[in-house]
Amino acid sequence: MTEKYAVVVIGGGAAGLSAALVLGRARHRTLVVDAGEPRNAPAAHMQGYLTRDGMPPAEFLALGREEIARYGVELQRDRVVEVTRGEDLTGVRGEDFTVVLAGGRTVRARRLVVATGLKDELPAVAGVAERFGRDVLHCPFCHGWEVRDQPFGVLASSPASVHQALMVSQWSKDVRFFLHTVAEEELSDGDLRRLATAGVEVVPGEVAGLVVEDDRLTGVRLADGAEHARSVLFLAPRAVPQTGLLEGLGAELHETPFGAYPVVDATGLTTVPGVWAAGNAIGFAEQVVHAASGGYRAASAIVGDLLMSDLDAAAQV
Predict the structure, then answer these.
(1) What is the DSSP string of 7-37?
(2) Angstrom distance (rounded) from CA 38 to CA 118
(3) Which CATH class name applies to 3-119+238-316?
(4) Binning pLDDT at 50, 70 and 90, where does residue 90 land?
(5) Rounded mean pLDDT of 165-173?
(6) Any alpha helices (H) in the chain, and if so which ranges?
(7) What span, in angstroms and rounded, lies between the C-alpha atoms of 187 and 95?
(8) How far apart are the first and last CA of the chain?
(9) CATH annotation of 123-234
(10) What is the pairing mode between strands 118-121 and 238-241?
């Protein structure tokens, strides 16, 4: 017979583990299915999480897995390939979900937490992918302090790049904004005025690649051969939300400048009854601390939802 859980959490990052911790402590049988592909895996450390500032992401997740195990939460290294809504014996859609794993296991769950995150699609510039998370960065709040006062470059890679160039100028007064494939005429007068006021130098011309010496970034090379000495390069990856499972269940999505994400309420409940989402599954800007908070909110809402469902069912007997 197919195993049944109160909740299956899809994704074992900060959001998923936080949800699992709350559910385990509430004595609900919970399974976490984790494919082992955290978004922040390239980073050597994470910042801005009170009491965990500077901790390596892998260590953070290892501690989280230890904590959920104390409360009987199961963790399986696998990938969810399909989720369907169950039907009761009369053929009417029921509240259970059937969850199929890539390894062949199938389980049932009364509620779901989708914490599948997103993927960062990097610009096709030579050297960027290899150095992403080291000296090619995307978030000044995550890494700005560690690289403060160094020569920064910012690669124009998305509509948010001007904003990014302005933001990073708070961590360094030596910032060059490489337009790459963007024509200078595409920048508004307001953009140019703000960049000039912030002291950001605008550099036209396509970027051909990075200059790396002794395993560290030393410059940015343009297509015309010109090199600009830089030790840090910021860019804005294209966010690719992992919404396939939610879409398969019929969840409503809304478009943002960073992709389409599920419509959720304040607890993370999607438009599909019984399905919550948390972390980068609901937005591009969810940092680790936000993801953990979102997982907690979703789990606490599920605990109450299951209780009320059970009480209502018992009252009808």
Answers:
(1) EEEE--SHHHHHHHHHHHHTT--EEEEE-S-
(2) 9
(3) alpha beta
(4) very low
(5) 98
(6) 14-25, 57-69, 128-131, 140-143, 161-168, 189-197, 244-248, 288-316
(7) 51
(8) 26
(9) 3.50.50.60
(10) antiparallel
Helix (H) or strand (E) holding 265: none
**CA angle 260–264–268, rounded 5-degree value:** 120
Give the number of other CB atoms < 10 A from CB of residue 53. 11
The pLDDT tens digits of the residues spanning 223-274 come to 999 999 999 999 999 999 999 999 999 999 999 988 999 999 999 999 999 9
What residue has token string 């990014």?
Answer: 164
Q: What is the mean pLDDT of the chain?
A: 94
- Please list the residues that pair with 75 across neighbouring strands: 32
Distance CA 140, CA 262 (A): 26
How does residue 1 score in pLDDT terms, banded at 50, 70 and 90? low
Query: How far is residue 84 CA from its own chain's centroid?
Result: 24
Say which residues have a Cβ less than 8 Å from residue 14's Cβ, sequence separation at least 6: 60, 61, 64, 279, 288, 289, 291, 292, 295
Residue 245 to residue 97: CA distance in whole angstroms: 12
Ranges of CATH 3.50.50.60 domains, the chain: 3-119+238-316, 123-234
Residue with tokens 């130098």: 201
pLDDT of amino acid 119: 94
